[in-house]
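SAMPLE LOG
Freezer: B-3
Tube label: C17
Construct: single chain, 157 aa
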Amino acid sequence: MPEDRKPPIAFETTCTVPAPPEVVYAHLADPRSYIGLSPLIVAVDEVRHGHDDEGRAVAEYLAVERFRLVGPVRWDNRIRVRMVSTPPHGPLVSEVSSPGWVSLRAAVTLTAESAGTRVHERVTADAPAPLRRFVAREARRVAAYRAAELTRRMAAR
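STRUCTURE (predicted):
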């Protein structure tokens, strides 16, 4: 991997969802909830639960991202995810390892508000130069979609 990489891609998203933090937390701590919560995730497999050295809950799993390339041509990208959660309200930290030397870290914190729960996500990602623009665009698009879908799911419960 080249040493002259640019600084990581970094951005934040915030939304308020109409549910208490415990409900939002339980939803986000379940790896299978990410199917459809991200517009790319179509499957979650090989889920393993455990605890790290600090006693925090850890879920490790394989997620399948489906990218539409041209017309009906699709590419399934299998990514490894390690999610560390600190109940009852967070943070939830997901570290993603994707083929092509792409990595992503998402840290979610939850704050109770009168309207429900404020969900704040900080995303950092790193990718080789040829993939940076694509990774940055997709990560931002997915984060915005995830905030809207989480809001919809919490309102529908």
